[in-house]
Amino acid sequence: MKKIILVAVVLLAASVDMQAQLVKFGLKGGLNYANQSGSGITLTNDNYNNEAITSYHAGLVAEIKVTDGFSIQPELLYSTQGATYKNAAEEFKNELGYLSIPVLAKFNFNKTVSLDFGPQASFLLSERKNVDFKESETFEFGVAGGLTLNVTKSIFLQGRYVLGLTEATQDAEVKNSVVQISAGFKF
């Protein structure tokens, strides 16, 4: 009986150790360089030019190893996006706060570099604007792609481009796009 219990404990410990090697959790954060593009951007019939804003993102990361060269990385991020609109006399900033959920396929070239690509769903949490804009959509779908550089087993750097595929506002054909530079830690 003692041998059976001992074997069960050893198998359970080995199973937990294998699971720990297959899934890593972590934290990440970084800078966004965000902009909005499209048609239908009008503010009181004046000609405005839009410019990118610098903002931030932060959140949780999980990496699920499927094979030696492939893994899945779901994330849960708070990300601010939007644009600044200017004409000769005025400047308006439209900043949107999203809960973004990218699910990326990671193709590992080696232990240091991987190519990341996948869909991203974003839910609007906050909207800070000092302009009478058309109302923003509460859901946005997009695609994300980029590279990850593993500095150590725990520390990583990422560069990513996210392109919104659905409109960011209800009455105009405006889409978000953002370049993200991140640093993170996996444990």
TrEMBL record:
SUPFAM superfamilies in UniProt: OMPA-like (SSF56925)
Keywords, comma-separated and alphabetical: Signal
Keyword hit for Signal: yes
Signal peptide: 1-20
Domain Outer membrane protein beta-barrel as annotated: residue spans: 19-168
Domain of life: Bacteria
Alphabetical list of InterPro entries matching this protein: Beta-barrel_OMP_2 (IPR025665), OMP/PagP_B-barrel (IPR011250)
Annotated protein name in UniProt: Outer membrane protein with beta-barrel domain
The species this protein was found in: Flavobacterium glaciei
Phylogenetic classification of the source organism: Bacteria, Pseudomonadati, Bacteroidota, Flavobacteriia, Flavobacteriales
